[in-house]
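Write out structure tokens for Branched-chain amino acid transport system substrate-binding protein.
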Amino acid sequence: MRRRLMRALGMIALALGMVIVGRGPLYAADGSIRIGSFLAVTGPASFLGDPELKTLQMYIELINTDGGVNGRQLELIHYDSQANPKNAVGFVKRLIDQDEVDIIIGGSASGETLAVMPLVDKAEVPFISLAGSIKIIDPVQKWVFKTPHTDRMACQKIFEHMQGEGIQRIGMISGTGGFGKSMQGQCQEVAGDYGIEILADETYGPKDTDMTAQLTKIKGTEGIQAVLNPGFGQGPAIVTKNFRQLGFEVPMYQSHGVASKKYIELAGEAAEGVRLPAAALLVADKLPDTDRQKPVVVAYKQAFEDRHGAGSVSTFGGHAYDALFMAVEAMQRCQCSDAAGVRDELEKTAGFMGTAGEVTMSPEDHLGLGLSAFRMLEVKGGDWALLD
């Protein structure tokens, strides 16, 4: 189905210019399979939710045009959470109790995802999160899955690269939001496994507009060989600018939470040389032809940018693509849409090649990605370049 839909993308004109705020199904059809979603389409995390919603809209329309799933149309019911956990809780209650959705795909940010997990567990509704924290799938919860690489994996990939560069002593400055705080903790836990010593450990709040004081402390710490910034949103761009203004002469590493062109736009020339782990999607056209993931990421990138403009693709929209098609393929395998059947088939996902990498899940692993799914990138000439 995925290959057929990719071929059809250039031939189908979609009427998806509407702005969705609050509730309201995109499609209304008797007997449809209802997909619920809550995403940060507006607000400070809109760079996450906007491409995620656009991806769901585009591919659900294409799937419906192609005949639906098991002969039934898909109906998308979406709410704009603005990455606010309280909003997310209210919307997920509505999706479960009033909209009676069959599955939920959403949670742009870790905080809102963690807030709704008890609800989906109690209601026994399959939930595929698009957020980064390892706490979403560790420990495994029966009804919860996720598509992005975890923050722990990001720490490991970064430290693996630092180890290869002979970097042993670092400074860290982390956001205090759900993702930043979680990744900070994960990096602290695994640093010793790679011979990395964190000599300075600073934080900043979500509303902070200048991190010069924290970075000055890091710069004044003797022996610092690199700086790592766990965080997402506008904070890392500010950190990057302040880092350059202070004249650091060591490398800066960011998290996969900034894996979109929006970060480069916000940080400007200061982003040059910044290193980070990210999905292959950001360098789709630069992958060797022998790379098994290349056909998937090139096709998604082309489809998204044909619809929404050159340079608009991000790994965040890719998370939604992976979640949707893992759900669709699970429904096709079980020839069902009931919660228990779909959940069981999601857990059996094996060899699924998505934008994040090859996914093989199990009862003990509701992510299914290995560390090799991450690529180390560097900002060069205002664009992404492969480091390995």
